[in-house]
């Protein structure tokens, strides 16, 4: 299968400009500028899937990696790939060196068996690890992309939904592997604690999805800036929660799904619209109009929450996906409250330092200035998402 022409052209253009410049260290800058429409709107977490087939004498790892992950590695790393095919191959070796597998505390040595493409968005890697003897426990860790910064102090990170098969039978599924959450997997059919671990891991994943998802943060902060009372805040956040939970659920049931080319511009547009209403029509920032706006755009935020995670979980049983999404949703709500409540109460405290007759004007000025900044950031996201 050939990669899309636009992807190939971007890659070739980046390489050509790098060569013309004569400076190898410009490669990352050149490619990132060319790939800005793909990368600028992304979360710093690239999601993939991994299946581990366990045999008495070897492990076969089937990894489905997003092209985003490969391109970030090529842009910022030391690859000299002259084509996308070479970039896929080079990333296979990078993947092998950044994923560590131990069997009964003994580190395994692996090799890349096969590299293939899966549509425009994923690359498939088959890796083999020799087992000196049948294993009772596997330990898996990884630090993929961690050396590359998404933003100052915020590195990229790869996460994987992991399933384990023993003798052709699935024993563990839906497990979450991140750089901060390594996996310890008991073999020989022992999956007694899988559900408990799955819930805790996806709750944490949902929490971090919000705290590192700048698009969602900008939207909820724009909402908070315009709330005058605690009751206003409760209504707005409740409507937003209802909306994104609805579409997240419908996505899990495969009833409603939209491509990222539609969802991402709508999320970016929601940031711009809500922020500009705060600036120019503050009287419309509360009441029925605001609640309807929040509900409408909240539907698209729910689809944004679902996108990459559901792709990574494709093929898993419905009950496993359901448990993971419930935990993920709880984590998302915790993340919202961690942001929303401190911002709201900080704004209220700041207003108290002003005389009573000036407190309203001061709050309005803070709302407008803060919303103006958010709208500019939202416009950048909107351009990148188109």
How are the elements arranged and paired?
Layout: H1 5-21, H2 27-34, H3 36-39, E1 45-54, E2 58-66, H4 67-76, H5 84-98, E3 99-103, E4 106-107, E5 110-118, E6 122-130, E7 137-142, E8 149-151, E9 154-155, E10 157-166, E11 169-177, E12 183-186, H6 194-211, H7 214-225, H8 230-252, H9 260-280, H10 288-312, H11 318-351, H12 356-385
Give descriptors for this structure:
12 helices, disordered N terminus, 12 strands, alpha+beta
3D architecture notes:
It is built from 12 helices and 12 strands. It is an alpha+beta fold and 386 residues long. Helix 1 packs antiparallel against helix 2, helix 7 crosses helix 11 and helix 8 runs antiparallel to helix 11. The radius of gyration is 23 Å and the shape is elongated. The protein has 2 domains: 150 residues, no CATH class; 176 residues.
Number of domains: 2
Q: Order of SSEs, N→C? A: HHHEEHHEEEEEEEEEEHHHHHHH
| Main sheet: strands, sense, barrel | 6 strands, mixed
| Structure annotation, total helices | 12
What do the pLDDT scores average to? Answer: 80
Q: How far apart are the termini?
A: 26 Å
**How many beta-strand runs?**
12
The computed structural class is alpha+beta
Percent of residues in helices comes to 55-70%
Tell the overall outline: elongated
Radius of gyration: 23 Å
Q: How much β-strand is present in the residues?
A: 15-25%
pLDDT < 50 runs, ≥5 residues: 1-25, 27-42
Strand order of the largest sheet: 5-6-2-1-10-11
